[in-house]
Write a structure and sequence with these properties.
This protein has helices spanning about 30-35, 55-60, 75-85, 100-105, 130-145, 165-180, 190-200, 215-225, 240-245, 255-260, and strands at about 10, 20, 25, 40-45, 70-75, 90-95, 110, 120-125, 145-150, 155-160, 160-165, 185, 205-210, 225-230, 250. The chain is an alpha/beta fold. Strands 5-4-1-13-14-15 form a 6-stranded parallel β-sheet, with helices on both faces. The longest helix is centred in the middle third of the chain and has 13 residues, at about 130-145. The protein is globular, with a radius of gyration of 18 Å.
Length: about 260
Protein backbone atom coordinates (compact mmCIF):
# COMPACT_ATOMS: atom_id res chain seq x y z
CA UNK A 1 0.00 0.00 0.00
CA UNK A 2 1.22 3.50 -0.88
CA UNK A 3 1.62 5.98 1.96
CA UNK A 4 0.43 9.00 0.00
CA UNK A 5 1.24 11.30 2.91
CA UNK A 6 4.95 10.65 2.34
CA UNK A 7 4.88 11.53 -1.37
CA UNK A 8 6.20 14.89 -2.56
CA UNK A 9 6.07 14.68 -6.38
CA UNK A 10 2.79 13.59 -7.99
CA UNK A 11 3.06 12.80 -11.71
CA UNK A 12 -0.46 13.09 -13.10
CA UNK A 13 -1.87 11.83 -16.34
CA UNK A 14 -4.68 14.16 -17.42
CA UNK A 15 -7.41 12.83 -19.73
CA UNK A 16 -9.16 10.00 -17.91
CA UNK A 17 -7.36 10.79 -14.64
CA UNK A 18 -8.30 14.34 -13.60
CA UNK A 19 -10.89 15.04 -16.29
CA UNK A 20 -12.66 13.40 -19.24
CA UNK A 21 -13.32 15.49 -22.30
CA UNK A 22 -14.31 18.87 -20.89
CA UNK A 23 -15.58 17.54 -17.56
CA UNK A 24 -13.37 17.91 -14.49
CA UNK A 25 -13.64 14.94 -12.14
CA UNK A 26 -15.01 15.46 -8.66
CA UNK A 27 -12.12 15.62 -6.22
CA UNK A 28 -9.52 16.98 -8.64
CA UNK A 29 -9.41 20.50 -7.18
CA UNK A 30 -9.38 19.13 -3.62
CA UNK A 31 -6.49 16.82 -4.49
CA UNK A 32 -4.41 19.55 -6.14
CA UNK A 33 -4.97 21.90 -3.21
CA UNK A 34 -3.96 19.21 -0.73
CA UNK A 35 -0.67 18.55 -2.55
CA UNK A 36 0.22 22.24 -2.49
CA UNK A 37 -0.86 22.65 1.15
CA UNK A 38 1.61 19.93 2.13
CA UNK A 39 4.48 21.54 0.24
CA UNK A 40 4.50 19.00 -2.57
CA UNK A 41 4.46 19.40 -6.34
CA UNK A 42 2.17 17.99 -8.97
CA UNK A 43 3.24 17.73 -12.58
CA UNK A 44 0.88 17.02 -15.47
CA UNK A 45 2.61 14.36 -17.58
CA UNK A 46 0.87 13.66 -20.86
CA UNK A 47 1.51 11.60 -23.96
CA UNK A 48 -0.84 13.82 -25.96
CA UNK A 49 1.30 15.64 -28.52
CA UNK A 50 -1.50 17.39 -30.40
CA UNK A 51 -1.61 20.45 -28.11
CA UNK A 52 1.00 22.95 -26.91
CA UNK A 53 1.58 23.57 -23.22
CA UNK A 54 -0.06 26.98 -23.54
CA UNK A 55 -3.17 25.27 -24.88
CA UNK A 56 -3.21 22.98 -21.85
CA UNK A 57 -2.82 25.97 -19.53
CA UNK A 58 -5.84 27.58 -21.19
CA UNK A 59 -7.84 24.36 -21.11
CA UNK A 60 -7.24 23.76 -17.42
CA UNK A 61 -8.03 27.41 -16.67
CA UNK A 62 -11.42 26.84 -18.27
CA UNK A 63 -11.97 24.02 -15.76
CA UNK A 64 -10.93 26.15 -12.80
CA UNK A 65 -7.31 24.96 -12.49
CA UNK A 66 -4.68 27.71 -12.48
CA UNK A 67 -1.39 26.44 -13.93
CA UNK A 68 1.82 27.55 -15.62
CA UNK A 69 4.13 25.93 -18.15
CA UNK A 70 6.24 24.69 -15.22
CA UNK A 71 3.38 22.38 -14.23
CA UNK A 72 3.60 20.28 -17.42
CA UNK A 73 5.83 17.71 -19.07
CA UNK A 74 4.63 16.44 -22.45
CA UNK A 75 5.80 13.70 -24.78
CA UNK A 76 6.88 16.49 -27.15
CA UNK A 77 9.22 17.81 -24.42
CA UNK A 78 10.70 14.32 -24.14
CA UNK A 79 10.88 14.00 -27.94
CA UNK A 80 12.79 17.30 -28.22
CA UNK A 81 15.18 16.13 -25.51
CA UNK A 82 15.75 12.88 -27.45
CA UNK A 83 16.28 14.60 -30.83
CA UNK A 84 18.66 17.24 -29.50
CA UNK A 85 22.19 16.57 -30.70
CA UNK A 86 21.07 13.80 -33.07
CA UNK A 87 19.04 15.65 -35.69
CA UNK A 88 19.87 19.32 -35.07
CA UNK A 89 20.60 20.08 -38.75
CA UNK A 90 18.24 17.53 -40.33
CA UNK A 91 15.01 18.23 -42.21
CA UNK A 92 12.38 16.34 -40.22
CA UNK A 93 9.02 15.19 -41.55
CA UNK A 94 6.61 15.95 -38.70
CA UNK A 95 3.50 13.75 -38.92
CA UNK A 96 1.08 15.49 -36.56
CA UNK A 97 -0.90 18.64 -35.91
CA UNK A 98 0.14 22.17 -36.83
CA UNK A 99 0.83 22.75 -33.14
CA UNK A 100 3.11 19.69 -33.06
CA UNK A 101 5.15 21.09 -35.97
CA UNK A 102 5.29 24.52 -34.36
CA UNK A 103 6.65 23.13 -31.09
CA UNK A 104 9.45 21.33 -32.92
CA UNK A 105 10.23 24.44 -34.99
CA UNK A 106 10.28 26.64 -31.89
CA UNK A 107 12.81 24.23 -30.39
CA UNK A 108 15.10 24.96 -33.34
CA UNK A 109 14.43 21.98 -35.62
CA UNK A 110 13.80 22.18 -39.36
CA UNK A 111 10.41 20.58 -39.98
CA UNK A 112 8.13 19.93 -42.93
CA UNK A 113 4.85 18.18 -43.67
CA UNK A 114 5.66 17.85 -47.38
CA UNK A 115 7.44 14.94 -49.04
CA UNK A 116 10.93 16.05 -50.05
CA UNK A 117 14.28 14.49 -50.89
CA UNK A 118 16.91 14.27 -48.18
CA UNK A 119 14.59 13.71 -45.21
CA UNK A 120 16.37 11.37 -42.74
CA UNK A 121 13.69 11.21 -40.03
CA UNK A 122 9.93 10.77 -39.66
CA UNK A 123 8.46 11.80 -36.30
CA UNK A 124 4.88 10.90 -35.51
CA UNK A 125 2.54 12.38 -32.90
CA UNK A 126 -1.16 12.18 -32.03
CA UNK A 127 -2.73 13.72 -35.12
CA UNK A 128 -6.24 15.19 -34.88
CA UNK A 129 -5.66 16.64 -38.37
CA UNK A 130 -4.88 13.29 -40.01
CA UNK A 131 -5.10 13.01 -43.81
CA UNK A 132 -4.50 10.16 -46.21
CA UNK A 133 -1.74 12.24 -47.78
CA UNK A 134 0.22 12.10 -44.53
CA UNK A 135 -0.19 8.33 -44.38
CA UNK A 136 1.00 8.01 -47.97
CA UNK A 137 3.99 10.30 -47.36
CA UNK A 138 4.93 8.30 -44.26
CA UNK A 139 4.80 5.02 -46.16
CA UNK A 140 7.05 6.42 -48.89
CA UNK A 141 9.56 7.71 -46.35
CA UNK A 142 9.58 4.47 -44.36
CA UNK A 143 10.08 2.59 -47.63
CA UNK A 144 13.17 4.73 -48.17
CA UNK A 145 14.52 3.58 -44.80
CA UNK A 146 14.38 6.86 -42.87
CA UNK A 147 14.57 6.80 -39.08
CA UNK A 148 11.17 6.54 -37.35
CA UNK A 149 10.36 8.04 -33.94
CA UNK A 150 6.93 8.48 -32.33
CA UNK A 151 5.79 10.38 -29.27
CA UNK A 152 3.62 7.69 -27.68
CA UNK A 153 2.16 4.20 -28.19
CA UNK A 154 -1.38 4.91 -26.90
CA UNK A 155 -3.99 3.01 -28.92
CA UNK A 156 -6.79 5.46 -28.18
CA UNK A 157 -7.45 8.91 -26.74
CA UNK A 158 -10.52 9.02 -24.46
CA UNK A 159 -13.27 11.54 -25.16
CA UNK A 160 -16.64 12.35 -23.66
CA UNK A 161 -18.29 10.13 -26.32
CA UNK A 162 -15.88 7.18 -26.25
CA UNK A 163 -12.42 6.92 -27.81
CA UNK A 164 -10.58 7.95 -30.97
CA UNK A 165 -7.42 6.44 -32.51
CA UNK A 166 -4.24 7.80 -30.93
CA UNK A 167 -0.64 7.77 -32.10
CA UNK A 168 -0.14 4.08 -31.39
CA UNK A 169 -3.03 3.09 -33.66
CA UNK A 170 -1.69 5.18 -36.54
CA UNK A 171 1.78 3.69 -36.06
CA UNK A 172 0.22 0.23 -36.17
CA UNK A 173 -1.37 1.11 -39.52
CA UNK A 174 2.03 2.20 -40.80
CA UNK A 175 3.60 -1.01 -39.51
CA UNK A 176 1.00 -3.11 -41.33
CA UNK A 177 1.72 -1.20 -44.52
CA UNK A 178 5.52 -1.00 -44.31
CA UNK A 179 6.78 -3.47 -41.70
CA UNK A 180 8.46 -0.59 -39.81
CA UNK A 181 7.88 0.19 -36.14
CA UNK A 182 9.00 3.42 -34.45
CA UNK A 183 11.04 4.10 -31.37
CA UNK A 184 8.47 5.41 -28.90
CA UNK A 185 9.52 8.23 -26.56
CA UNK A 186 6.62 8.85 -24.16
CA UNK A 187 4.99 6.58 -21.61
CA UNK A 188 5.54 3.61 -21.05
CA UNK A 189 9.21 4.43 -21.52
CA UNK A 190 10.69 5.68 -18.22
CA UNK A 191 12.24 8.90 -19.56
CA UNK A 192 9.34 11.22 -18.71
CA UNK A 193 9.28 10.11 -15.07
CA UNK A 194 13.06 10.18 -14.78
CA UNK A 195 13.26 13.65 -16.33
CA UNK A 196 10.60 14.90 -13.92
CA UNK A 197 12.50 13.71 -10.86
CA UNK A 198 15.80 15.04 -12.18
CA UNK A 199 14.35 18.43 -13.11
CA UNK A 200 12.70 19.05 -9.72
CA UNK A 201 15.07 17.21 -7.41
CA UNK A 202 12.85 14.46 -5.97
CA UNK A 203 13.81 10.85 -5.22
CA UNK A 204 12.02 7.73 -6.39
CA UNK A 205 10.68 7.17 -2.88
CA UNK A 206 9.12 10.64 -2.88
CA UNK A 207 7.42 10.19 -6.27
CA UNK A 208 4.19 8.54 -7.41
CA UNK A 209 2.64 8.35 -10.88
CA UNK A 210 -1.15 8.42 -11.18
CA UNK A 211 -2.87 7.34 -14.40
CA UNK A 212 -5.74 5.45 -16.02
CA UNK A 213 -3.80 3.28 -18.48
CA UNK A 214 -1.89 0.19 -17.39
CA UNK A 215 0.15 -0.18 -20.59
CA UNK A 216 1.39 3.44 -20.71
CA UNK A 217 0.95 5.33 -17.41
CA UNK A 218 1.51 2.50 -14.95
CA UNK A 219 4.16 0.86 -17.11
CA UNK A 220 6.10 4.16 -17.19
CA UNK A 221 6.15 4.30 -13.40
CA UNK A 222 7.11 0.64 -13.07
CA UNK A 223 9.91 1.08 -15.62
CA UNK A 224 11.15 4.14 -13.71
CA UNK A 225 11.11 2.29 -10.38
CA UNK A 226 8.49 4.46 -8.65
CA UNK A 227 5.13 3.82 -6.99
CA UNK A 228 2.07 3.88 -9.23
CA UNK A 229 -1.65 4.52 -8.65
CA UNK A 230 -4.04 3.05 -11.22
CA UNK A 231 -7.38 4.91 -11.40
CA UNK A 232 -10.48 3.38 -12.97
CA UNK A 233 -12.00 6.67 -14.14
CA UNK A 234 -10.72 6.52 -17.74
CA UNK A 235 -9.75 3.85 -20.25
CA UNK A 236 -8.40 1.18 -17.91
CA UNK A 237 -10.29 -1.64 -16.22
CA UNK A 238 -9.12 -4.04 -13.46
CA UNK A 239 -8.72 -6.87 -15.98
CA UNK A 240 -5.93 -4.92 -17.67
CA UNK A 241 -3.59 -5.82 -14.82
CA UNK A 242 -3.61 -9.50 -15.79
CA UNK A 243 -3.92 -8.77 -19.50
CA UNK A 244 -0.71 -6.72 -19.63
CA UNK A 245 1.01 -8.37 -16.63
CA UNK A 246 1.88 -4.94 -15.23
CA UNK A 247 1.06 -4.45 -11.56
CA UNK A 248 0.36 -1.01 -10.08
CA UNK A 249 1.28 -0.31 -6.47
CA UNK A 250 -2.37 0.52 -5.74
CA UNK A 251 -5.75 0.66 -7.51
CA UNK A 252 -8.24 3.48 -6.86
CA UNK A 253 -11.67 4.27 -8.24
CA UNK A 254 -10.79 7.87 -9.00
CA UNK A 255 -8.88 10.97 -7.94
CA UNK A 256 -11.33 11.67 -5.10
CA UNK A 257 -10.45 8.35 -3.46
CA UNK A 258 -6.77 9.28 -3.67
CA UNK A 259 -7.52 12.65 -2.07
CA UNK A 260 -9.39 10.93 0.76
CA UNK A 261 -6.44 8.55 1.32
CA UNK A 262 -4.20 11.57 1.87
CA UNK A 263 -6.05 12.51 5.08
Amino acid sequence: MIDLRQKKLFLLDMDGTIYLGDTLFDGTLDFLSRVRERGGKYLFVTNNSSRSVSAYVDRLAGMGIASTADDFLTSVDALIWYLRGKYDDALIYAFGTRTFREQLAEAGFRVTDKLEDGIPLLVCGFDTELTFQKLEDACILLGRGVDFVATNPDWVCPTSYGSVPDCGSVCEMLFRATGRRPKFIGKPEPEMALLSMERYGYSRAETVLIGDRIYTDIACGVNAGIDTAFVLSGEGVPEDIEKFQIRPSEVYQDIREIFLRME
